[in-house]
Each structure stands twice: as C-alpha cells, then as structure tokens.
Design goal:
The chain is of the alpha+beta class. It has 16 helices and 22 strands. It binds one RNA strand of 76 nucleotides through strand 1, strand 2 and helix 2.
RNA sequence: GGGUCCGUGGUGUAGUGGUUAACAUGCCUGCCUGUCACGCAGGAGAUCGGCGGUUCAAGUCCGCUCGGACCCGCCA
C-alpha cells in the first residue's frame, strides 16, 4: 500500500491515528538528531518527523532524502507540543511521527523550487512543465478548469443537450483562419484540415434532427499567437434547433450565471448589459470593450472642424473623425513629455499620426493645440467633454477605424495604468448586430465578418447588393472584461439564402458547390431553423483564475512561435514518412 | 511579414571596453534532537545563447543568427 490518507486531510482530529501517506518532499530540515520533512501531495502539505529513537532505520533513510523525492511513509499523527506549533500553517498543530519510509523514486535537484512564488522564467517553467504543474498555484488552475467544464456539462446535460463528437480530420475551407493541414497517405496530394471550429458539423447535426448539441471541442487555427491566443484551444460549442435568439441568449446568460456561482460564488445580475456593435465602436473604440471603467470616446468632429487647426478640418472633409478621451483630474499626472512620448507610443501602432492634447484649467485650456480654438469653441469643447479644471483631454483625428483602434487602445492603457479598473468585477456584455460583411482591401471583396452561414437581418437585405457593408448580421459576441469569450449567430438554413450569401462573398456557383455543397444539400431536406454559439474555455478559465496568459490555463501550451519547448514540436520527420505521404520539402530547405 | 524588450553559475539578478566575472538563492560536505525562510562552518559550480566583426583588449560596441516575452498585421 502506498497510502491510505491524503496529506491535506489531516487535522487534530486525526491525532493518534496511524496513517500511510505518499507524496513529494517539499522541504527537508535536518537538525542532526531529528529530521523534518514537509511532505506534499495534491491535497496539501504535512510535516513528518524522523526521530532515531522512534525508528533508527527510517531516520537513516530520511537522511538520504532530498527535495522532490517521491515517498511513502507510515507513522502516527501526533498533536504537537504547545511550543512546537506553527501558527502560519493550516495543520501546523500536528505532525506525523514516522516509523517506516519507502523511497518510491529519487529526484534530481529541480531547476526551480516547487512553490507558488517563483522567479523562474516562463521558458524554464515550460521546459520543465511537469515540475511547474506540481506548484499548488498551477494545480489550482487545473482544478478550476476541470470544475468549469464539469459545471458547463452538467448545465447543458440538464437541458437535454447531447454531447456529440465531430471529426478532427476534416475538410479545408477557404474562409476564415489559416488551416492546419494533415497530408493524406491514401490520397496522394490531398489534405485533411484540423477544424477551426465544428461549425459545419454542428449545423449538419441540426439537419440530422439532434435538436440540441454541445461539445467541449478542440479548435485549431494556424495564425500568429498572442497572450490570449493559442494555435489549439478549447470551446464549449453549442447549437440548437427551433432557435429563438432571445430565448437562447437567456439560456447562455443562465449558464454563465450558474458558472460564476459555482466557481466564484458570485451572483451576476441578469439580464447582461447589451451594446450593438455600432454603439461599442462609438463609445469604446472596440467590439470587445472592457466596461469595468468608464472613460468613453467622445465625438468632436463637428467642433474640431470649426477650429483653425488644418488637420482637424481636413479629417472631417475626408469623412474621418475627431474623437477625444477626457482623463478626469489627470492633467498634472502626465508631463508634456509623457503625453508626447509614452501615450503617443500607445496610439501609433494603430496608424494614428499624432496624439493632440489639452490640459483644462479654470478659465482656459493649455496645450499645443489650444491656440486653434477660440473662446466660443473652447466653451463648446468644455461642454461636450464635460471638462473641468485638472482634466487631461486626448485627441485623435483620422479615419474612423484608426480613431477607434487607437483611442480604444489608449483607453485600455489608461484604464490599466491609472488603476481605473475594478479588478474584482466580472462585466458580462453582449455585443449584437455585427456587420454581416467586411470589405477586404487585400482580396478586393467582401468577407463574412462572423462566418458565411450567419443569417442577415432580413430588413437589411434590400441593401445587400447596393451597400453590402451596411447589412447587419443576426450574430452576437459574449464579452467579459474586455475579452471576447465567444460568438454565435442564427444560421442560414435556407438553400436560396445560402446561395445568395456565397454569391455576395464572390464565390462562383461551382466553388460554393465544391466547398459547401454538402451543407447546401442538407438545407434541401427540411433543416430546421437553428443557431448557437461557442465560448472559449481557456479564456473563461484565464479570467476566472486571474491569469494574465492563456498558457497558464493549458497544461502543455505552445510558445509565441507555436512551438512546444518541452517536446520540441514541431520537428522534422524522416524521409520515409515524407515519402509515404507523397511530400517533398527539399525546396524549403535552402 | 513588421516593431519593442530580454538572453551572464541550477534559478533569479548585478556588472564605465581593462587583473581572478559579483550578489542572492539553490546544491555538496561537516556539525547540530524541535525546525518550519532552521542555524553555523567550509566547498563546488559560468567556455556571459551561437557565429562573425571592430579593438592592444569585448560579458560590455557593431552585424548576423537562434531562443523567449509583448504588440501591430493576421485571427470567419
């Protein structure tokens, strides 16, 4: 027997029991005569004691033991003497007097200590991920993650959603992210793709009469990584037939409220806040705004156009915008240099050519652009911006997209650095009425903003030919604290409508047939109206666990260059393997 | 594809172009029967990511390259 009790379960109530524990050596303290070992398992840490007067044999074995040795020990749980109690530790009033010890495995000295606050770089942690994951902090994230999926499953099971698996080896489709490809041995020159999401299959399951489907699904996208983006990630994917958007969204809200209650013990009020895409872009410069703080974007295009500042006037003439942030009471917080260098640096990557500013004083505004606003205009600025003495006003004038992106990013930067964000808050937010299509400068055509199967607003359909960009989609995103948790939509289930969509997207009839014919055919056999959404599990866990990187929520994540420093994937393969797959990579290896 | 930052004993850091690369921690050895950040004494451990260049002299300056972090593009 390796063990009959977990370290963390022991308390004074266990005193005088004989127990067998198994775990790892957290710390060994050798006082010459007596040896103390902090023994750690998944449940916690307990001090075990080796005294030669109890067992000379156990004591001399313990003398050889080092950090992270894997042990099984047997002994009597003892209440400690008053003066030996350690009040800093949960079970510091007891210890186990060991009579027998078995070394299950030895350990090299670990590259970093197995404890919560470590200073090892993430690089080293990932290389020794199995040691990193021993740290209680990491263990707790994966306990939480497991509870998240369990809670979601239970909720959906209770509502008679069926957990159905869909293929991992699937068909490459042209729209959307870059596919991970898997060469076919049996079909020379042909490839499977790993799914970017189970989208097509879940719609086919609706055509199949499954009515309610969910899956904790792995998704793959071969795009560049970010702190909140991994090449493979997990979604809870949900789809239902006889879909009605308000009922469905209400259920998703219930699901998330239930999740927050179970995981964090927090009651999230319903209904969730809602913004249309247009509102979100206008007020926050983002389609995933962090609404835990205010600091909204304020449109000043009309006032700015009346000023004598040339760039402001020109922007209006070209159909651009001038917008501003009013950073309340922070005029003295930023020096001229800090605004011109630090804050401007936030805004330039998004294409903003400059960051104009004004400091509001009792009877005037100070700053490089102050002279372009006469008394009347200054008064209008004051009113529009609700400006008071001590406020810092920050302006960007440019094309709509640049203004939104740059001020949106600046807003977030200020929120973080000025401590405006209530870190304990969980602000769930629906973003609705996304544009159906977005024009791609690169491809010189419209692309689906969500995906090509999204139902448009029928009342907008008269503009689908004349002004495709203005057509709204029956789609919605769930945003939490500035992160996109997931998105969904009502789907097209009608053959003619789907055909029209592909046409608008610039697909030839043949190409639509070749790529998506199977789905279009399914629509001809009584496919019910349906819709759904998918929520990113990794991001949910990241936010609930308070991690700053998605990597902390994934047991074996990839680095920013999509490689795995533990297994060294990706790696070269043998010529024999390549030959079998009819592949030749020689030209790439110059 | 582009930008910014980082790379020095196991780990984390310091290090004006100039002797034997410093500090903390960890590790090893010895001593120690109530420690829990145990203590005390001693010791080992670095081709300063790699290659090339400048220089009498490079951890330090320059170029390239590899690896990592963050961001832009990209991510239906």
């Amino acid at each position: 027997m390796y063990r009959n009790t977990n370290c963390g379960e022991l308390s004074v109530a266990s005193a005088s029991q004989t127990v067998t524990l198994a775990g790892w050596v957290q710390k060994r303290r050798d006082l010459g005569g007596v040896i103390f070992i902090d023994l750690r398992d998944r449940s916690g840490i307990i001090q075990v004691v080796f005294n030669p007067s109890v067992s000379k044999e156990a004591w001399s074995k313990a003398d050889k033991v080092r950090s992270e040795y894997c042990l099984s020990v047997t002994g009597e749980v003892m209440k400690r003497a008053e003066e030996a109690i350690n009040p800093k530790v949960k079970n510091g009033d007891i210890e186990v007097m060991i009579s027998d010890i078995q070394v299950l495995n030895t350990s090299k000295t670990p590259p970093f200590p197995i404890e919560d606050t470590i200073d090892a770089s993430e690089d080293v942690r990932l290389k020794y991920r199995y040691l990193d994951l021993r740290r209680p902090e990491m263990l707790n994230i994966f306990k939480l993650r497991s509870k998240v999926t369990r809670t979601l499953r239970r909720f959906l099971d209770d509502r008679e959603f069926l957990d159905i698996e869909t293929p991992i080896l699937t068909k490459s489709t042209p729209e959307g992210a870059r596919d991970y490809l898997v060469p076919s041995r049996v079909h020379p020159g042909e490839f499977y793709a790993l799914p970017q999401s189970p989208q097509l299959f879940k719609q086919l399951l609706m055509a199949s009469g499954m009515e309610k489907y969910y899956q904790i699904a792995r998704c793959f996208r071969d795009e560049d990584l970010r702190a909140d983006r991994q090449p493979e990630f997990t979604q809870v994917d949900i789809e239902m037939s006889f879909f009605e958007v308000d009922k469905f969204q209400a259920m998703i809200e219930e699901m998330l409220v239930n999740l927050m209650k179970e995981i964090k013990g927090i009651d999230i009020p319903r209904p969730f806040q809602r913004l249309t895409y247009a509102q979100a872009m206008d007020l926050y410069g983002s389609d995933k705004p962090d609404t835990r703080f205010d600091l909204k974007l304020i449109d000043l295009t009309d006032i700015a156009a009346d000023s004598t500042l040339k760039v402001f006037k020109e922007v209006q003439e070209r159909g651009g915008q001038v917008k501003a942030l009013n950073v309340k009471g922070k005029a003295s917080h930023f020096s001229r240099k800090q605004v011109d260098e630090d804050l401007k640096a936030v805004v330039t990557p998004y294409g903003a050519k400059g960051l104009a500013w004004l400091k509001v004083e009792e009877n005037a505004m100070k700053g490089p652009i102050a002279k372009f606003f006469d008394e009347d205009l200054t008064a209008r600025l004051r009113e529009r911006l609700n400006a008071e003495a001590g406020d810092l006003l920050l302006f960007v004038a440019d094309k709509k997209k640049i203004v939104a992106d740059s001020l949106g990013a600046l807003r977030l930067h200020l929120g973080k650095t000025l401590g405006l964000i209530d870190e304990s808050a969980f602000n769930f937010l629906w973003i609705t009425e996304f544009p159906l299509l977005a024009y791609s400068e690169e491809e010189h055509r419209y692309l689906a903003e969500h995906h090509p199967f999204t139902m448009p607003f029928l009342e907008d359909m008269d503009k689908i030919e004349s002004d495709p960009g203005s057509v709204r989609a029956q789609s919605y995103d769930m945003v939490l604290n500035g992160f996109e948790l997931g998105s969904g939509s009502e789907r097209i289930c009608n053959h003619a409508m789907q055909e029209k969509m592909f046409k608008v997207l610039g697909f030839s009839e043949e190409r639509a047939e070749q790529q998506f014919g199977f789905l279009m055919q399914a629509f001809e056999y009584g496919t019910p109206p349906h819709g759904g959404m998918a929520l990113g599990i990794d991001r949910i866990v990241m936010l609930l666990a308070g991690c700053s990187s998605l990597r902390d929520t994934i047991a074996f994540p990839k680095t920013a260059s999509a490689s795995d420093v533990l297994t060294h994937a990706p790696s070269e393969v043998s010529d024999a393997q390549l030959n079998e797959l009819h592949l030749d990579v020689a030209t790439l290896l110059k």
